[in-house]
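Hi F.,

I've been meaning to write this up properly since the lab meeting, where we talked about keeping a consistent format for the predictions we share between groups. The idea is simple: the sequence comes first, exactly as it goes in, then the structure tokens exactly as they come out, then a line or two of notes. No screenshots and no reformatting. I'm using this chain as the first example so we have something concrete to point to.
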Amino acid sequence: MSTTSTIRAATADDTEAIRSLAIDNGMFEPESMGDFDEMMSGYLDGSLVDHAWVVAENDKGDIVGAAYYAPEPFADRLWNLYFLAVRAGQHRDGSGTALIGHVEQALRQLGEGRARVLIVETSSLDAYAQARAFYRKHDYDEEARIRDFYGPGDNKVVFWKLLAVAQ
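Output, unedited:
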């Protein structure tokens, strides 16, 4: 049963909660949050055009998940879901499904002229098996694997979903 009541645009006040999600889910080490900080600050100050952070709040107003997506440079109407995380104790409560559904709907609302495909990248390590299953459950196709991308034995797995009929 889902406890998510709201999906909304992230604000500066949400930064620490989103940082915690990233660290708690093992996406970033505390000492290597530079990329995260750059993505968040660029979104907040408007310098990263078309980039979006959204958060999922439960009925108490606590942030239980977050997503970050942006257009992929040098690609034809292709978007990348760079970040999707849900609080560890809240996995399988519907928050991830609500977030990814919100992202897909927002991109579809942009229209075929701006959004055609959404990709997401994750690791091949066993620790990410649940994430890979999540994307497959939501009709993402495994499109590619790049060997040893994140390190020896840690392949990048790219998932792909068509959002609109190609023009």
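Notes:
Strands lie at 4-9, 52-58, 63-71, 78-86, 117-123, 141-151, 154-162.
The chain is about 30% helix and 35% strand.

If this format works for you, I'll send the rest the same way.

G.
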